[in-house]
Amino acid sequence: MHWIQITIETDKDQSGLIDSYLCEQGALSVTFADAGDQPMFEPEPGTTPLWEAVRVIGMFDAQAPIDKILGNLEVANNGKLPPHRIEILEDKDWVREWMDSYQPVKLGQRLWICPSWHKPPEPGAVNLMLDPGLAFGTGTHPTTNLCLQWLETADLDNLTVTDYGCGSGILGIASKLLGSRHVTAIDIDPQALLATRQNAEKNGIPPEHILVEFPENHDGKKTDLVIANILAGPLIELASLLSSLVKTGGNIILSGILSPQTEKIVSAYNPWFDFKAAKELDGWVLLEGRRRAEGNRR
Description:
Elements lengths: L1 E10 H13 L4 E6 L18 E9 L4 H11 L7 E7 L3 H8 L3 E3 L3 E5 L10 E5 L11 H12 L6 E5 L5 H8 L4 E5 L3 H13 L7 E4 L9 E7 L2 H6 L1 H6 L1 E13 L3 H8 L3 E3 L3 E3 L2 E8 L7
Parallel strand pairs: 6-7, 8-9, 8-11, 9-10, 11-12
Antiparallel strand pairs: 1-3, 1-4, 2-3, 5-6, 12-15, 13-15, 14-15
Helix pairs in contact: 4-5
């Protein structure tokens, strides 16, 4: 089976109208994309911002009357047809396409992130077998990459770890494979908890070595290391909570932070932590802090 894809260049003010029009004309799906390489920082809660230049993409059945649809769009747009292009999309095994595009990734000297359908390139290395499923975290995003590189070089022997916002479980599982004693993996998304449990099992981690739970079920027990790779807004909101989960002298690793947001995050956690210089990759930042004693709070 084939599909026809119409891509229309417009602006954010007109994008909603074109979206509605394509849906009325029988589009199987409509998506928006950035047409001007404009960075979109973390939105305020409850908002859905758009780029100034927007690419509206409509997917139609191969038998759809494309000439008629474009003619009607021209009439609806006051006699002007916006810039557009038409493509024929062939039927593919999209699952296979995705699997082929996801290859093993090496982090540092000894850690490999390997999709579960691949054979590890270095069987003697630390190989984390991963099937992300519907949860975030494959090791390719700069924030996850920064966290994995930090873990790969850290001395984790016999430490307890909390992975807050665990997603696929990649960071917590990596810490366990790299020597930590026990991991607590926390997320608000049931799919993330399911993916973490399944990935832990794939990597031979016994259930008693990794506790997977919702935030409301967590008992607040402190650990030697807390990792939170989420976003700047939630990190600021959770500053007091996450700080309370780190033992005195323990470390906190914060990521999911864009470079311009660094000072706000440091300020939010400064009452409890002393931070090292930020590590940056592709505009994203990792912060490493050490927990001060209770009496030394600023």
